[in-house]
Amino acid sequence: MQAIEPATLNQRFGIAEVAEVVEGQGGLPKIVIKSAAAEGEIYLLGAHLTSWKPADSHEVLFMSRNSLFQDGKAIRGGVPVCFPWFGPNPSNPKAPAHGFARIRAWELDSLEKHGDDVVVTMQLASDEATKQWWSADFRLTYRVTFGRELTLEFVLTNIGSEPVTYEAALHTYYRIGDISKTSIEGLDRVHYIDKTDNREEKIQRGPITIAKETDSVYLDTTADIAIIDPVLRRKITVHKENSHCTVVWNPWIDKAKAMADLGETAWPNMICVEACNVGPFVVELSPEQQHSMKAITTVSAL
Ligand code: BG6
Questions:
Q1: Residue 35's domain is classified under what CATH number?
Q2: Residue 239 is assigned to a structural domain of this protein
Q3: Residue 238 is part of which domain span?
């Protein structure tokens, strides 16, 4: 784990006035991006993206005001990285929900300016702590490109001598005007597992609208997804690469109330749309093989 002071990291990696490492909430190191194409923020804890604002636009991500910013705890909102399992661990109830990647400090690899875009690259590799939960030898590289588009690239390399099987999700919380007026397009006729209804498999008909707790894993779909938000008058489009499932989640009233780091009032302003490979679509890699999953988000006016 890299317990290096933000100022030291900034000296080594920072690009003055464009990408700087500073002390964020809870004293945790975060990178602040300011370029002609976008502004944004990402923490080393969990490689957790907490803000993306493309030029001439408003914040696209939802962040909970009640979020913890504490080593070893997940940040609520933004983009948690779920890896190497999704949801509870199937065989160990003590293992952290959604895996360990979102609660570990990642190593900063580089900050680069590509034209008006800024690319942040972070790494996480297997060590004693990861092996406590999962035996694989792996190297993860997470490349986030802040620009008019937001590109999240999640690359796993199997550096061990055994095959590796894992789940991964880019658990993105989008900020929306009002959940009851929002619709999600792109998943018509796709089969999904309804986690709010005993994991029953169902078929989506038409756009998704949300009027109750929703926790759905859409299977075998690589399609683009569009979040239509008539209140904020914008359309958020998510293009996926090498992601064969999409999760749609909103906790609704009761579940939100029970989540101290979310609170009672914020849930109508968030929707999670997650590019992922989970359940029957786990990724299997032979030694030395690599897999890259991408989610590219764009925003346009409605
Ligand atoms: C979603 C899952 O992706 O994440 C839900 O499908 C889960 O089942 C939600 O409740 C939030 O998980 P957590 O661990 O961040 O509270």
A1: 2.70.98.10
A2: yes
A3: 6-301
- Whether the per-residue pLDDT at 3 is higher than 80: the answer is no
Examine residue 1 and state whether it is found in any structural domain, yes or no: no
Contact indicator for 249, 98 with CB cutoff of 8 Å: no
Task: Give me the chain's average pLDDT, please.
Answer: 97
Q: How far is the CA of 149 from the centre of ligand 1 (A)?
A: 25
CA 22 to chain centre: 21
Q: Which two tokens stand for residue 73?
A: 């705890």
Q: Whose CA is nearest to atom 14 of ligand 1?
A: 97
Whole-number Å distance, alpha carbon 87 to ligand 1 midpoint, is: 6
Residue 134 belongs to some domain of the structure: yes
For the segment 295-302, the average pLDDT, to the nearest whole number, is 97
Name the 3-class secondary structure at 76.
coil
For residue 87, the model assigns a pLDDT of 98
Q: SS3 of 101, please?
A: helix
Find the residues whose C-beta lies inside 6 A of ligand 1: 74, 87, 97-98, 171, 195, 215, 247, 249, 272, 274
Domain count, the chain: 1
Asked if pLDDT for residue 1 goes beyond 60, the answer is: no
Specify the ligand 1 atom closest to the Cα of 255.
Answer: 10
How far apart CA 281 and CA 186 sit, in angstroms, is: 19
Q: What is the pLDDT of residues 35-55, one digit of tens each?
A: 999 999 999 999 999 999 999
pTM value is: 0.98
User: Is residue 299 over pLDDT 60?
Assistant: yes
